[in-house]
Amino acid sequence: xxxxxxxxxxxxxxxxxxxxxxxxxxxxxxxxxxxxxxxxxxxxxxxxxxxxxxxxxxxxxxxxxxxxxxxxxxxxxxxxxxxxxxxxxxxxxxxxxxxxxxxxxxxxxxxxxxxxxxxxxxxxxxxxxxxxxxxxxxxxxxxxxxxxxxxxxxxxxxxxxxxxxxxxxxxxxxxxxxxxxxxxxxxxxxxxxxxxxxxxxxxxxxxxxxxxxxxxxxxxxxxxxxxxxxxxxxxxxxxxxxxxxxxxxxxxxxxxxxxxxxxxxxxxxxxxxxxxxxxxxxxxxxxxxxxxxxxxxxxxxxx
Length: 303
What we know:
The structure is a single chain. By secondary structure, the chain is mostly beta strands. It has a single domain, classed as Beta-galactosidase, Chain A, domain 5 (Distorted Sandwich). About 0% of the residues lie in helices and about 40% in strands. It contains 1 helix and 22 strands. The strands form 6 sheets. An 8-stranded antiparallel β-sheet has the order 8-9-10-11-22-18-17-14, with no helix packed on it. It has a 4-stranded antiparallel β-sheet with strand order 1-2-3-4, with no helix packed on it. A 4-stranded antiparallel β-sheet has the order 15-16-19-20, with no helix packed on it. The radius of gyration is 18 Å and the shape is globular.
């Protein structure tokens, strides 16, 4: 675990590596249990966005800082895969209070309660500070896939609304191609203007910009992917569309904090803010004492 004699904000982090013949996955339990890296070993292909300065860093963990509750997300590493719960954008909800930027999970240390490297498996949890919910994620490797098994438990006597989104900042390549279920229409989450280019083809997306969008209708199938033609690789997400019927996306070509990334974000809330999702009646609700389980499959394979 931590080096208690030298507890700095950066560097001395607990790092968990899961490794199979095909994949090497790195997790940072103290930094929201972030999945910091997904490396496809045969091709040395990194599927996730890495922090700015990663290429020249002598100590990788010093690129990650322990955040604090309520911290602004864009002032930290802007990389890897996090969970957003119970909101994405900060907001206030009547009778519940204020909710922080990108939710609670990314800025909290998680507790690792089961780690089996021989089985390529680790389980961790944390408790939300904004709503009395217990959140657990089991990461396990199988071949060229990573399975994320989730458990959400309402530890209170009240029903609660909740929004979850998989916030996976993936590798940016100029020739990347996105795919998701068709037919579809896109909502511009940052304005009323329709997009004047095909968001699926990164070669058409303007440089030094950042775009957030949603598919306007629930997806018929929980599957989306990013194709990297120059790398001959594909990154695929699969999830339960009955629980998470909405799909958002984030394309950053250097317009936000100088970083570059691609994100496809399955979610149960439409869209981005818990208060808005409640008003739209497009949000999850969990009964007193209830448990909800779901799974996401991430696959990194040759195209």
